[in-house]
Amino acid sequence: MLAFDTETHLIGPGEVAPAMVCLSLARGPTDYGLFAGGTFLHWNTPIPWKPTEYMEWFMSAAVVDLNGEEFLSEQFLSEDMLIGHNMPFDMGVIANHWPGLHKHIWEAYERDAVRDTGIRAQLRAIKLDHFKYDPAIRQKPSFSLDELSQIHLDRKLDKSSWRLRYKELEHIPVTAWPAGAVHYAVADAVTTLDVWEKLEEELPGGYPDEWLQNRAAWGLHLASAWGLETDQEAVAKLTEELKVVVERNDNRLKELGLMRENGVRNMQAIKDAVEEAFALLGEDPPLTKTGGISTDEDARERVKGLSEKVDAYHASLGNKKILNEFIPTLKPLVNPRFYPLVRSGRTSCRNPNLQQPPTKGGVRECFVPREGHVYIQADISRAEMCAIAQICYIRFGFSELGEMLKRGIDPHTMVAARLCHVSYETARVILTNPEHSRYIELVGARQLGKIANFGLWGGMGAEAFVGHCRRNG
Question: How far is CA 99 from CA 22, 209, 377, 439, in A?
């Protein structure tokens, strides 16, 4: 096994794979080193963890002239497993620094020789149901290397001294670097290997789909690094339009007593409005975990149309969120942050969330293809349903969904037919005739069918399922 880590310039807009300053490598407790500027420092003694010992340790390194690209090429072509923490970032940095290694990096992923301590730890947390709360640290885990080091090695890493300063050392021979800067870089590779070995002791070979998660992480990182361009004139225009709408909504909230003159929401008045609306239904309002009246989207949807105040508050939130949270992320080049794993096993995206961009308000229209390129929209019929059915065939040997698809039956229409108490054939006929008296009803029911077919199979709980259905009428 070979663990490695890079230290770089700072990440910035359009610089998701910033310039590399050094590369640290580790094969074992007495076989590790640091490469920078054509020089490789190698140690065959254990790394110290007391700052007072750093200088003596630094001076004991063997100094070797090394062609880093040739060395890594040999490692990528070997049978060794390549270990890292946030490996896609380091692979991207290496590919940017040594373009000649592109092919070898892809080959390493294709033969499933790449592993990531962060992904292994996240899969472990999903298995143990520790993704939201880890009793070992008594909080939600971040899956950082320092956190994993503390959990599995009882070792606290220095993450403040040199983490953001390696650009300062770029043109200084590595033999003249401060001992602390060298130790910081080397410690990451050594700790990554140590953490990996602990994780391997617990579950040799890892998880069944771990290879796929690592490939997905690499692909998502490349998508982030490439990014999306935006039309800044369209962004500016949308911003001004949203400001007008938000100001109008805020003025209406002030008129209804739901917002104070300083722009702060009057949450007590909003809670009172929700309570009054539920009273009209003859129901008690839903409560938060702390026992207060809930004003969340699900609660608002349940009383939609019953309260002018609740409806006004509900209408004000969407545009304000787009203006305050989404618009500021629409830089000329958008590099979203993808997360290859969440608790459900799915992926997520932030800054901005391009997996679920707002469908209204003109946000999507702000994205434009690069010069000389076009956007293409393609939809493979029933792709998700076919994938679900195939997984059932592989894992269980049968799939009622698969047999349904083979007969040409649309699963969403089948759910709609059952909800509307008509036959499947009748539902199909109605859905082809917009003039039919029950067309809108069937269209809505088919949309609910999608929520059931996609959501429940993907692990959506009952509460979330009900909430999604309410939000879709």
Answer: 16, 29, 31, 57
Residues 83, 212: one domain? Answer: yes
Q: How far is CA 84 from CA 87, 113, 189, in A?
A: 5, 11, 8
Check: CB of residue 161 under 8 Å from CB of residue 54.
Answer: no
- pLDDT (tens digit, 9 = 90+) per residue, 199-242? 999 999 999 999 999 999 999 999 999 999 999 999 999 999 99
3-state secondary structure of 297: helix
Domain end (from 168, 198, 226): 226
Asked if residue 419 lies in contact with residue 425, where contact means CB atoms within 8 angstroms, the answer is: no
CATH number for position 235: 1.20.1060
Tell me: do 288 and 205 sit in the same domain.
Answer: no
Query: Cα separation of 456 and 211, whole Å?
Result: 25
Boundary residue ending a domain (226, 253, 283): 226
Instruction: Please give the Cα distance from 191 to 129 (Å, whole number).
Output: 25
Matching residue, tokens 């969340």: 296
Q: Residue 137 and residue 181: Cα distance in Å, rounded?
A: 28
Looking up tokens 């059952």 gives: 418
Number of domains, the chain = 3
Same domain flag for 397 and 463: yes
Helix (H, G, I), strand (E, B) or coil at 431: helix
Tokens at residue 46, please? 């254990």
Helix crossing, 145-153 with 179-202: angle to 10°? Answer: 60
pTM: 0.83
Please give the residue range of the domain that contains residue 65.
2-226
Looking at the fold, whether 214 and 264 belong to one and the same domain comes out as no
